[in-house]
Each structure stands twice: as structure tokens, then as C-alpha cells.
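pasting for ref
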Amino acid sequence: MSDRVLSQGERPAPGLRERKKARTRAAIQRHALRLFRQQGYEATTVSQVAEAAEVSESTFFRYFPTKEDVVLWDEFDPRVVEVFRAQPAGLSPVAALRAAFAEVMVELSPAQLAEQGERMTLVLSVPPLRAMLVDQIRGPMRLIAEVVAERAGREPDDPAVRALAGAVLGVGLSAMFAWAEDRDADIVALVDEAMAQLEAGFPL
């Protein structure tokens, strides 16, 4: 994403090329998760994932620089941004994010929710993935800061904006960790409850 965030009216819809790339990336991740589930993460090679997804290894590495990246990539971030921008102007950034998270998560099919659960379980159980998590959260945090700054009329590097972005990411991760520990829990409710606490200023 460029440093300058376009307004909703300026942002063009993704073209055919971008949509095809998104579908390919999602397909590679889907096949990777299936193989990780069947064979184990460590036992599964990039070559096997590429073969299952019917792409070359070089194509795999164009989309995912490492095997760890194929687990950590989240295909739903662009949809969250789209729904966030569509929220009423009168909503605070936190309220708009809470609504966007809820809307996007409700849209997910049971299979997609299961894949998200698998991803989080892998991240917490595989040491190389846990080690990469801190580096990987920089991207989502920057993305949240950009869209919050856009709504608030501030700059993404404003200390208040950055603090809010970190808080949003923190409560989201707390919900995902709770879900990884109890896969029977309602992840939509967990995320919404966490965002409600943030919106209310964490009353205890």
C-alpha cells in the first residue's frame, strides 16, 4: 500500500489482474493448510504445496517469500478496509472498526472460519511461526493506522493514531488466542466483545 491513502471515491475497484492474483494466493494458502493438517507443518515442503496448488515453486515464492508467510498471510484485510470505509461518518474509528470486523466475520463460511482457526493454531504451535508473528503484525498495524487516520483527519504516524492501531490489534489478538485455546468458542462474539471493551475504554 502506498504512503498516501486514497479516499473511498478515489480508490478504483481491483482489476482483473489483481483479482486473479488474490485468487491464486488464496488457493496456495488453502492447499498449504490442507497439507499441514494432513502431514504436519514441518513435514510439508514448499514443493508439495506448489504441486498441490498446480503452480511452480517460483510462482509460490512470488506470492510467499517463505513457507511461514503462507500461514501468516490474511486474505481478509482488504475486505475489512472496504467495509470500514463504508461505515457512517458519525461513528468513531473504534466503533467503525468494530462494525467492520463483525460484518466481515459474519460473511465467512464455516470452511473459511475453520481455515482461520487452523492458521492461528499453527502460529501458536510452530516455533518459527511464533518467531515471525511480531514482524508480521507490523503490516496490519500500519494498515489500521492508515484507515483510522483517514477517518480521523490525522496522519498515520500521529502518536494517538499509532496507539489506537496497536490497541485494536492487541484486543484482536487476544480474541484469536482465546479461540485457539477453545475452538468451540464463537470467534465472532469474542472479537466483538474485545472491541466493545476497547470502545468503552476498558472498564473493570
